[in-house]
Structures are given as structure tokens and as C-alpha cells.
Amino acid sequence: MTELRVLHESTVQPEEIDALGHMNVRYYMTRVDQANRSMLAEMGIQEEPGKAIRRLDTYTRFHREQFAGATLHTLGGLIAVAGSDESREANGYFEIRNPDNNQVAASFILRSCLIDVSSQQVLDITANSVNNDTSEYRVLVPEHGMPRSLSLNDPARISLEELEAVVGDDPTPGMMSGRRKNVVHADDCDSDGRLREEVDLMFVLHRPTTGDENELGGPPVMRDSEGRRYSWAMIETRSVVWHRPMEGEIVLSIGADIANGEKWRQSRRWMFAEKTGLLLGISDSVGLCIDLDARRSIPMPLDVIEAIERTSLPQFA
Fold this sequence. Notes:
By secondary structure, the protein is mostly beta strands. The protein has helices at 25-42, 160-164, 201-205, 302-311; strands spanning 5-11, 51-62, 71-83, 88-98, 103-116, 122-123, 178-183, 222-223, 229-241, 250-260, 264-273, 279-291, 296-297.
């Protein structure tokens, strides 16, 4: 086994800061996606005409928030190459660190594959490799990088009809519940008119627009009965994607809380192609209720807990 290698270096830009005052989740994803592609390219696995690299499964654990001006290093290595002979996948582990204090900002476990663009079939990722000896890239996942609350098991799939039969129209305040839809823009797509692999499906759905009350992105900022500004900071997320939509398709997402505690809530969002009902993917998140001025966790307001308990769907956890 080897040590994690630096694969990407960056500085947090002011435009990457969201409504909570720290770097938004999407920019962590951008950095780790670039690092993953860089590592795979070193191994001789890279995109070529008719073939594309896809992140099938992305688990993230957030450790310390980062602010504008911070220097960040993204490090990574290969856990294993797994799967059948015809559809092998690369599993990688990555960390984003702040080198000024050597603290881990976030850690990631990724499952990637090579896709035939026309058929959308998973290919043997090692067929492109110039060197099948991957020992120099192999790493072990450290304890702090292992999932804390979320499972890495395959999430249960559910049909749009089943979900709509039990989900109400009244979302709980401030997280991932409720219904949302958005259209896939042409500038989000590749030359074949399909959503580009590096464009996260969740960020198509939650793309801020000018005039949006949450234009900076991130969870909304709210006030409790004591007047404190509060919101939810992501401490873990997982996104599993099975299909990519085409230009002009409307993506419908339906979300609900599936578990909660005094200070945290776990939400799940199912994403469908609205016209066909095809399940595109599932996104899980665990959010910690924080006082935005004190920058510490606090119990969720009672009205939020009551709403979660009234509308949650623990049977779909």
C-alpha cells in the first residue's frame, strides 16, 4: 500500500462561498472529480471518442468547513478494481486537505466506470489501462474516511408511482424534502446531447437563479423562536447515479426525511425523468443543525422536528 498522492491543488474562490458562509458542497465535488480523473489518467484509463468516465457512486464525509482564500490539496489513491470481467470498476479514496494546518476538510469514497456513450453500457475499465499493475496506486481507507451514518449498500429502488402515493405536497422546512424539477440545459450536455458526466444531477436540480431567495446556493438560512440564524451543514452525503438525462428532459426529484435525531436529519431524494418515470439516481444527505453565528450545533426547532416526524418515510431508508 502507498500513501495518498496530491492530485489537485486549488484556492477557495469568493464565488464558491454559499449562503452559510463556507465553500459549497458542489465545489468539493468539482475538485474530487478532477482528482479522480487525474488518477485514472495516470493509470492509462481516460476518456476517448465514444467512451466516458462516470462516477456511479460518490460518498462524502465532511470534516471541517473551508472559507474563501483557503489553499486546498486533493489527494487520492485506488482502493480496488472490482466487478465482472465485462464491467470492471475503479474504487478510489480521496481527501481534501488544508495544507496550512494539515487538517482534512472532506473525505470521499468513489466508484467509477467507463461507459460506452452510445449504448450506455459499462465497459471493462482495465481494457484502456496501459499497465494492469495498480499496486503503486493502492491505498487503504483510514478510519476517519469510513462512513459514519450512511450505508454503502445498494439503495433500494422505488418507482415514481409508489413514491407519489405516499409523499405529500407539504415539505418540511429547510432541507431536501418536497418536490423539485428542472430542465436539462444544452450547455450542461455533451456533443451527443446527454448530461455531461462531470455535471452533478443534484446541481442541475438545485441550480440557483437570479432573484432566487437562495441565490448563493446551499440550504436556506432560517430563524428559530429565539431569533438565532440557523441552517443545516452537510456532514455526510452519498449520490448513486444509474442514468444520465438528455438535453431538454425535465428532471423531477421527490425528497423526504427518512431518519432524524435531536440535532440532525437524514434526507433522501429520488430523481426521475419526469416523462418516462425512469429512476435516474438517489441522493442521501445527513445535515447537522447549526447556529450560523456561533458556528456550533444546536437542537432542531420543535416545529421542524414535528414536521419531520409527521412527513418522514423511514420505510424507504
